[in-house]
From TrEMBL:
It comes from the Bacteria. This is Amino acid adenylation domain-containing protein. Keywords: Phosphopantetheine, Phosphoprotein. InterPro entries: AA_adenyl_dom, ACP-like_sf, AMP-bd_C_sf, AMP-dep_synth/lig_dom, FAR_NAD-bd, NAD(P)-bd_dom_sf, PP-bd_ACP, Ppantetheine_attach_site. SUPFAM superfamilies: Acetyl-CoA synthetase-like, ACP-like, NAD(P)-binding Rossmann-fold domains. Belongs to the ATP-dependent AMP-binding enzyme family. Gene3D superfamilies: 3.30.300.30, 3.40.50.980, ACP-like, Luciferase, Domain 3, NAD(P)-binding Rossmann-like Domain. PANTHER family: CARRIER DOMAIN-CONTAINING PROTEIN, PLIPASTATIN SYNTHASE SUBUNIT D. It comes from Solibacillus faecavium. Transmembrane segments: none annotated.
Length: 985
């Protein structure tokens, strides 16, 4: 393989007088370029640059930049281009990271160097002084090798610090060889140089030109940032090849084209775009203007494999069904793999991460061995090609039927909004489909403790925000709708050519109503006025109608808590559930008016044991279990059940939602059990809410025939929300997973439920009428959508016993931290019991209530479920998994005081007034709302009875609920900074 310098030397000898470089007011021949770069190389060598040493270039994009980088390569060095327009902090960090003694600059840029606070010993090369030297002939001293590193590009790092990628000559030579042959580039071509030299796209256009003898035109910032100026340069300079334009800028160019000005591309024979997803609409629009006269490529490649790994030539007749233009097939010198979370190559149309093996693969990241080992890994598929290394790109793609690859999204663009994992690219896709929208970008904005979606878009016309929202609502759930919108003339892009999401994150946008235009009905009484004032304040909107649905104007569960914190003291009759049921100010005010505050039922001190209902005595012989499917395995309970099964030597299949299922399982295992994986685990990426769990029918059937039992632990366990959603997850999801049993009737089905079912039956006065029944009545309903859907799922499962299926139900109690060490779930701040505990510690008070407190340590609960699942003989179908010996609330407070927490028990009325008083912080009031709404300490006659469960399953070792255990719970909460307090048992 030829080297850069030997190839360049051939061109200088062949066509030295031809124009090599040109910019608006300057041009250089190949001979002049050779001479000037020789001077730079000679200076570096004379001043001690060693082979492989780094040299920084601190220049604006210009002919000087090309002279400098060639001089560095001739001297055996590695060039690192710094952009003076980048933040000083970034440039200073890069200079420190490469540990260079040399910076090349010129008079224009040198004045900015002072702000970098350079080491006084730094050797600063001013090009004007270098050019004044005599010409130097280095032809005979050229001693380069294709294995030599020649440049380093710094890309954004997840830590906030950029990371340097070290690239060798052979990657460049392979890339140029492909382009010269396939793109038919020759010495008559005029190539446009667009990208900044701190971005790897500059490598593509610069070396393509230098090593083919064509002319390189370096467009300046004024020509680069204006569509009309850019197109005028293309025409006036007779540009024939535009190797790569950022997708964002290309979008602007296409939207600027008309039938009248499309002749500006008359000289062009090839255009490439890359950097981000290219939409079919944009590609079709461009082809409609330029026809077949221009070859048009969608290019893809990470910096780490030398610019380009795949390419797709867009046909003139691109199907109207194509939204995301493919990124094509692998280029010569590259081998691509699409890999699922199991580390196996994906099937057709299966989404996975793109891995690339390449002749141009990087030597890794400078001074970052950990990150290098994370993404540059031994090739598990082809150990004998390209040094046996493959690069994990972090891009999610899929292979189409024709062999082309389609880009889907970045792995790291998944975010959580209100507890929902969403893909930003999905929202951007839907916005780009809105009539009139040219380009849309969505970013996440922190708003207090909330995260909201903020969307920016461009259009040739003025589009009302409400029109966009109304269109999006037909395809997207409410939590995926942008809270803020803003129309821009242009989407800003970074010097890398990609969307500048950081800049957009800092931009202000307009809050939008999710209900569109509607009649604003003003409050008609004092209660409505009070409620509307609070809604405006919490939702940060100017106008609220008494008939507005809270959840259509930006409300959600966290906002409900915040609203209640403001109104609970004035209107104690209102509950969290009311907001989900009644939804409007009008309805809530009506409830307040019609509610008598004197109807509270006083607790009489008599407790009711809620036993394992319905009473279903059986004699069931269950076959031996060795292979078990567990759902909800990344949750607190599901993960502990899975771990317990692994300890028993069982083979475990884990059903996990999302494209990164394997990673989520690994993270969960590491978090709870300090281990990454286990050979007995098989992770299945699936979705409970979909038919066949989102798998193919063949894979679904294969799974059914490969397992002995199912422990169904997945559910939406929030206490409030939309009924349709709870039905979809808790009821239909259960039916979907049970289809496995319908295929293989030998599967035993273990269904995880909640004691909240029997507690709500008692609260609603229905317990006594049903407690002796042997089934759950068809017409039985509960007010809470959560417990009602859990009860419906229980009934559906238990009814399957009538047709011979082996089914069991487990009602879980108050799941608390591990008995062994107090370790609790990661989202501790969302747990009602721990929030109650935090509130009592913050205010040093607790209500004097009659309550038998259940503590069910998570490891104890998992032991009970697994023991039952592995038990051969059963005499009942319903079990209660909770501690058989709950402790009085007063005893619990006494233990807290033994731990030096100084909590005073006070009368309930005083406690409620105290925690909602004006002197309390917003945090305390928010915690107080949930407490007073039934998620905290209150008088209750409910006792969860698990005596029969413990007896039948022969559970002998019960956890002791005493000072040592409670101390572990509080210590863990303190370590997680949920409770800012150090307590030791």
């Amino acid at each position: 393989m030829n080297t850069i310098l030997h190839k360049l030397n051939e061109i200088v000898l062949k066509q030295g007088d031809a124009i090599a470089l040109k910019e608006r007011n300057r041009q250089l021949t190949f001979t002049e370029l050779n001479n000037e770069s020789n001077k730079v190389a000679s200076y570096l060598i004379d001043n001690g640059l060693e082979k492989g040493g780094f040299v920084a270039i601190y220049l604006k994009r210009s002919i000087d930049t090309v002279i400098s980088l060639l001089g560095i390569i001739k001297a055996g060095g590695v060039y690192v281009s710094l952009d003076p327009s980048h933040p000083n902090e970034r440039n200073s960090y890069i200079i420190d990271d490469i540990n260079t003694s040399f910076i090349i600059t010129n008079t224009d840029a040198e004045q900015n160097l002072d702000s970098l606070q350079l080491d006084p010993s730094m050797n600063i090369l001013q090009l004007e002084n270098i050019y004044a030297n005599k010409a130097v002939n280095l032809t005979l001293n050229i001693n380069d090798n294709v294995e030599d590193p020649c440049y380093t590009i710094f890309t954004s790092g997840t830590t906030g610090k950029p990371k340097g990628t070290l690239i060798r000559q052979k990657g460049i030579m392979n890339l140029v060889d492909y382009m010269q042959k396939d793109w038919q580039v020759n010495d008559q071509d005029k190539i446009l140089q667009f990208a900044t030299y701190s971005f790897d796209a500059s490598v593509l256009d610069t070396f393509l030109s230098l090593l083919t003898g064509s002319m390189l035109y370096l467009i300046d910032d004024e020509e680069r940032m204006s569509e009309s100026n850019f197109l005028n340069v293309v025409k006036s300079e007779g540009i024939t090849i535009i190797p790569v334009l950022p997708t964002v800028f290309f979008n602007r160019i296409v939207n600027h084209l008309t039938e009248e000005n499309s002749d500006l591309f008359a000289s062009v024979k090839l255009v490439g775009v890359g950097g981000e997803l290219l939409t079919g609409d944009l590609a079709r629009k461009f082809k409609s203007f330029v026809g077949d006269q221009i070859r048009f490529f969608n290019l893809y490649g990470p910096t780490e494999i030398t610019v380009m790994a795949t390419a797709y030539e867009v046909p003139k007749d691109l199907s109207n069904d194509v939204y995301s233009v493919p990124i094509g097939k692998q280029l010569p010198g590259n081998k691509v793999y699409i890999v699922n979370e199991d580390g196996k190559q994906c099937k057709e149309n299966e989404i996975g991460e793109l891995w690339v093996a390449s002749i141009g693969i990087s030597l890794g990241y400078l001074h970052n061995e950990e990150k290098t080992k994370e993404v540059f890994i031994p090739n598990p598929f082809d150990a004998n090609i390209y040094e046996g290394i493959v690069y994990k790109t972090g891009d999610l793609v899929k292979q189409l039927a024709d062999g082309n690859i389609e880009f889907v999204s970045r792995k790291d663009t998944q975010v959580k909004i209100r507890g929902h994992r969403i893909e930003i690219a999905e929202i951007e896709t839907k916005m780009n489909e809105v009539d009139g929208v040219n380009n849309a970008v969505v970013v996440v904005e922190k708003e207090g403790d909330d995260q909201i979606l903020k969307a920016f878009f461009t259009s040739n016309e003025r589009i009302e925000h409400t029109a966009i929202i109304e269109t999006l609502k037909t395809d997207l759930p409410s939590y995926m709708l942008p809270t803020k919108l803003k129309q821009l003339e242009d989407i800003p892009f970074a010097p890398t050519g990609k969307v500048d999401r950081k800049a957009l994150g800092k931009m202000e946008a307009d809050r939008v109503s999710l209900v569109g235009s509607r009649e604003i009905i003003a409050p008609r009484n004092e209660i409505e006025k009070d409620l509307i004032d609070v809604w405006k304040k919490v939702l940060k909107i100017d106008a609220v109608s008494v008939k507005d649905n809270l959840f259509d104007i930006g409300g959600h569960s966290l906002k409900v808590i915040e609203i209640l914190a403001h109104v609970k003291q004035t209107y104690p009759a209102l509950t969290i559930k009311d907001f989900f049921d009644l939804k409007t100010v009008e309805n809530l005010a009506e409830k307040v008016i019609n509610t008598s505050l004197n109807q509270d039922i006083q607790f009489n001190g008599e407790f009711t044991n809620l036993t394992e209902w319905p009473v279903m005595p059986i004699k069931e012989q269950v076959r031996e279990v060795n292979k078990i499917l567990v759902t909800g395995a990344t949750g607190f309970l599901g993960s502990h059940i899975a771990q317990k099964l692994l300890e028993e030597g069982k083979e475990v299949f884990l059903l996990v939602r999302g494209e990164n299922a394997e990673q989520r399982v690994s993270e969960t295992m590491q978090k709870y059990f300090n281990c990454n994986t286990n050979p007995l685990i098989t992770v299945i990426s699936g979705d409970l809410t979909k038919k066949f769990l989102g798998l193919s029918k063949e894979d679904f059937t294969e799974l059914a025939n490969n397992i002995d039992a199912i422990i169904h632990s997945a559910a939406d366990v929030r206490h409030f929300g939309n009924r349709e959603h709870f039905e979809k997850v808790n009821v239909q999801g259960t039916k979907n997973i049970f289809e496995l049993v319908n295929i293989n009737a030998d599967i035993t089905f273990h269904h995880i439920s909640t004691v909240g079912v029997v507690q709500d039956l008692l609260t609603e006065g229905k317990w006594n009428s049903v407690k002796d029944m042997s089934n759950i009545p068809e017409d039985l309903q509960l007010d809470s959508v959560y417990t009602d859907t859990k009860m419906k799922a229980e009934k559906w499962i238990l009814d399957q016993a009538k047709v011979g299926k082996q089914v069991f139900v487990y009602r879980m109690g108050n799941l608390a931290g591990r008995y062994s060490d107090g370790h609790f779930q990661s989202n501790i701040d969302e747990n009602a019991f721990y929030r109650m505990l935090k509130l009592m510690i913050l205010v040093n008070k607790a209500p004097n209530v009659q309550w038998m407190v259940d503590f069910t340590p998570i490891d104890f609960a998992a032991d009970v479920v697994v023991k039952s699942a592995l038990t051969a003989e059963h005499t009942v179908r319903v079990y209660h998994v909770c501690h058989p010996d709950p402790i009085p609330f007063a005893q619990f407070v006494s233990i807290l005081n033994e731990l030096d927490l100084s909590i005073e028990m006070v009368e309930t009325a005083f406690y409620e007034d105290y925690i909602l008083s004006d002197s309390m912080s917003e945090e305390i009031k928010n915690l107080a709302v949930a407490q007073l709404d039934g998620d905290g300490a209150s008088d209750t006659n409910a006792v969860f009875d698990s005596q029969q469960t413990m007896k039948l399953l022969k559970i002998q070792h019960l956890p002791k609920i005493e000072k040592e255990y409670i101390g572990k719970l509080i210590q863990y909460a303190s370590e997680q900074q949920f409770i800012k307090l150090a307590v030791y048992a």
